[in-house]
Amino acid sequence: MEQDKKSMDEEMVEGSFAELLEQSFVDSKRLQRGQKLKAVILKITPDWIFLDLGRKSEGYLATKELTDKDGNVTVKEGDTIEAYYLPREDQEHLFTTRLGGGEVRQSFLEEAWHSGIPVEGVVEKEIKGGFEIKIAGSIRGFCPYSQMGLQRVDDPQAYVGERLSFKITEYAERGRNIILSNRSVLEEERRKQKEALKASLNEGMTVKGVITSIRPFGAFVNIDGVEGLIPISEISWGRVEDVGEYLKVDQEVEVVILKLDWDKERFSLSLKKALPDPWEDIESKYPADSIHKGTVARLANFGAFVTLTDGVDGLIHISRLRGERRINHPREVLTVGQTIEVKIESMDEENKRLSLAPAVTEGQEEKAAAEDYKKHAEQSSGSMGTLGDLLKIKFSDPKKKE
Q1: Which long-range contacts (CB under 8 A, 24 or more apart) does 241-246 make?
Q2: Region 342-350 average pLDDT
Q3: How far does the chain reach from its first CA to its final CA, in angstroms?
Q4: Rounded Cα distance, 169 and 178, in Å
Q5: Beta-ladder partners of 187
Q6: pLDDT in tens, 137-169
Q7: Does residue 37 contact residue 53 with C-beta atoms inside 8 Å?
Q8: What CA–CA distance (Å, rounded) separates 166 from 293?
Q9: Least CB-packed of 65, 215, 250, 336 within 10 Å?
Q10: Could you tell me the CA-to-CA distances from 399 to 214, 324, 364, 402 in Å, in that order?
Q11: d(CA 294, CA 316)
Q12: Is the pTM of this model over 0.70?
């Protein structure tokens, strides 16, 4: 028994020693100024956010760095963030996500250039080739047009007065010549968003997004920083001629993800698949021999396509359009956009096909019979014929009753 206890104590000591040794190596690795690392938020106060660095000591950064325009904190305790080590003489464990305001000194800016730390600046004015940026006090930088935003600058004045984040791409003449890039900051943010979405998005999912632009071939949608395309064929169950009639820029939509190609950054979306499928319960909506109103959508050599509702079209074969005279094309008796009554003849639900025929009402049948009677009477030798002859004419061709 004593031997077992002794053995257990030795194992505990060895385990503790190993942990202490490993921790000593971690703590002995001194952080370098400007070093970027991940840290877990331990506590949030009005002025400071305290960070778990995986060391004996904690780090902290100013709470105002992680607040929105309304002053609301954008993170919570337990979140993991990336920050840069930027110690001062009186604040050894100070971190930052960006430099800005009163924190900016020439030495910090040079370190930000070397380490890639973002800096905040206000767009003062438009100058030749780009913008003058005020970083702090008398420190000025230059941001070329090509490095402002992710898209081409169409309205330069829209940026004037904005406070934005930049990376220093060139630092020369002891800070008298500073070149800035807003694009690189945005590209890095988009890359992070993309990596996060990679883990959360899957084909077949239904997600929300915002329409960013309308094109003749479809609409582009922003989904948390990733832009996908809704092809024109995926906007509605019905035929779409003008995308602008269905969607507007800044409109929020719910779409189904059809395809995700992260390598080529091509993302295909469907708006119609987020809507009820009009072919669901189709047999109960359009039973055989039922009569419905429809609109002639398209004419072809072999027949006419009729839309009963968005996404549900049927075909009237040309043979069903021929009356007593032979026609060579459906346009001889129908026009696109015309409203007609049709009868459901047959249905192929699996392939989503409906066979239709022109609906003939009881009044139309009587009128057709009367016209047949009159025509045959006129073709006789002047005699109206016997009653038996007339009845024979009426019922000789059963199809005329349909």
Answers
A1: 243/214, 243/215, 243/216, 243/217, 243/218, 243/219, 244/214
A2: 84
A3: 103
A4: 8
A5: none
A6: 678 899 999 999 988 888 899 999 998 989 999
A7: yes
A8: 62
A9: 250
A10: 51, 11, 13, 5
A11: 11
A12: no
